[in-house]
Amino acid sequence: MARRIAIVEDEAAIRANYAEALARQGYDVAAYADRPEALAAFKSRLPDLAIIDIGLGDEPEGGFTLCSELRAMSMRLPIIFLTARDSDFDIVSGLRLGADDYLTKDVSLPHLLARVAALFRRVEALADSQPKEDRLERGPLTLDVMRLAAEWKGEPVALTLTEFWMVHTLARNAGHVKSRDQLMHDARLVDDGTITSHVKRIRRKFQVVDAGFDSIESVYGMGYRWKV
User: Fold this and answer.
1) pTM above 0.70, yes or no
2) Which of 34-38, 157-161, 224-228 has the lowest mean pLDDT?
3) In angstroms, rounded to a whole number, what is the distance separating the alpha carbons of residues 49 and 59?
4) pLDDT of residue 191
5) What's the CATH code, domain 131-226?
6) b/e map of 168-179 (b: 16 or more CB within 10 Å)?
7) Cα distance between residue 127 and residue 77, in whole Å
8) CA 20 to 30 Å from 63, out of 85, 122, 174, 221?
9) How far apart, in whole angstroms, are the C-alpha atoms of residue 133 and residue 148?
10) Residues 6, 56: Cα–Cα separation, whole Å
11) Residue 36, Cα to own-chain centre: how many angstroms?
């Protein structure tokens, strides 16, 4: 069955262009012009991936709101922001809300398609992990790869797909530094600036469960390490 991709974009020509390009790649595409229309559809059926603009009709921050609503429905659904807004504030805001990727509309269609394919490969890679990796334990950390669920000291930590992948990569290689380039490759992220934002968000989520959490160590000039 073809994977279903939802596009939420208020400009009809742009929406049609993206929808056509994705459909040519064999995806089942559902396109929506505004947040209420998309949200109503998502309550009936969640897509396998969502591509969202930030400004939607008369809602300048509608995409941010929709991202939060989607995250409340599913922590695992891959979400990409595709927008004309390229400020650091907007990028950080999008990632803080749980987006897995953030692209600007000057990106080429081949690059967009590559980002979509990369997110789906990440889902498949986690799902297809060998049985020995179905459950990863590092001290108080437990990662259930089949369920994409994380626990710290027995308490659940709500990680997005990207965040889970990053924690899995770091914890699997505990004690070893993972460079930004390595994390970018493993997590299929756009640039190393998003690495910093994701790590900060991951730390905050663990600190909600345990205020003393300090297992992700920044190694100056090198990258990050999961402390043994």
Assistant:
1) no
2) 157-161
3) 22
4) 55
5) 1.10.10.10
6) bbbbeeeeeebe
7) 14
8) 122
9) 12
10) 14
11) 22
DSSP-based helix, strand, coil % in the chain, nearest 5: 45, 20, 30
pLDDT in tens, 116-153: 998 888 777 656 554 456 788 999 999 988 777 899 99
Write out pLDDT tens, residues 158-195: 888 788 888 988 998 899 998 877 777 766 565 556 78
Tell me which CATH homologous superfamily contains domain 4-127. Response regulator (3.40.50.2300)
Looking at the DSSP bridge assignments, the partners of residue 225 are: 177, 217
Name the one residue in this structure whose structure tokens are 């969502």.
50
The Cβ of residue 88 has, within 10 Å, a number of other Cβ atoms equal to 9
Instruction: State pLDDT tens for residues 59-83.
Output: 999 999 999 999 889 878 899 999 9
* Largest Cα–Cα separation, the chain: 52
Identity of residue 47: P
H or E stretch covering 189? none
pLDDT of residue 131: 43
Domain range summary for the chain, segments of one domain joined by + = 4-127, 131-226
Write the single-letter amino acid at 55: G
Asked if residues 123 and 148 have their Cβ atoms less than 8 Å apart, the reply is no
